[in-house]
Amino acid sequence: QVQLVESGGGLVQAGGSLRLSCAASGRTFSTYAMGWFRQAPGKEREFVAVISGRALSTNYADSVKGRFTISRDNAKNAVYLQMNSLSPEDTAVYYCARRKLTGTYNTVAGYDDWGQGTQVTVSS
């Protein structure tokens, strides 16, 4: 099991930027893909982005493509989500999670070991 702790959320005006961080425990961090999800009030948790273990490939939800960038630093056991051009529709709790070896990359069921989440609020 991997413990995940997100940070970096906060309140930002529309058009602004935030960088989320996720710190992971464990010595095999580079062997698995990591994803970011978000959940807005009254809505289901949705996929945001995923990055492979060695950062050779990434995928994004259409809603964030071109605005958000996922990255990782395996030496620091960390994964990041740079969020630019934020809009009120991006307001949600953001979670990082470890992808299962055979998990579907854009579904909640494809991931184990979720963090506790960090709140992102974008004001208009």
Structural class: mainly beta
Question: Uncertain segments of ≥5 residues (pLDDT<50)?
Answer: none
Tell me the distance between the termini.
39 Å
- What percent of residues adopt helix (DSSP H or I)? under 10%
What does the largest sheet look like? 7 strands, mixed
Helix count equals: 0
Radius of gyration: 13 Å
Shape: globular
Helix-strand pattern: EEEEEEEEEEE
Q: What is the beta-strand fraction? A: over 45%
How many runs of DSSP E, i.e. beta strands? 11
Average pLDDT, rounded to a whole number, is: 96
Description:
The chain has 124 residues and is an all-beta fold. It contains no helices and eleven strands. Strands 2, 4, 5, 6, 9, 10 and 11 form a seven-stranded mixed sheet that branches. A hairpin with a 4-residue loop joins strand 7 and strand 8. The protein is globular, with a radius of gyration of 13 Å. The termini are far apart. 32% of the residues are buried. The model has no long low-confidence stretch (mean pLDDT 96).
Offer a quick outline of the entry.
The chain has 124 residues and is mainly β. It has no helices and 11 strands. Strands 2, 4, 5, 6, 9, 10 and 11 form a 7-stranded mixed beta sheet that branches.
How are the secondary structure elements laid out?
Layout: E1 4-7, E2 10-13, E3 18-24, E4 34-39, E5 46-51, E6 58-60, E7 68-73, E8 78-83, E9 92-99, E10 111-114, E11 118-123
Parallel strand pairs: 2-11
Antiparallel strand pairs: 1-3, 3-8, 4-5, 4-9, 5-6, 7-8, 9-10, 9-11
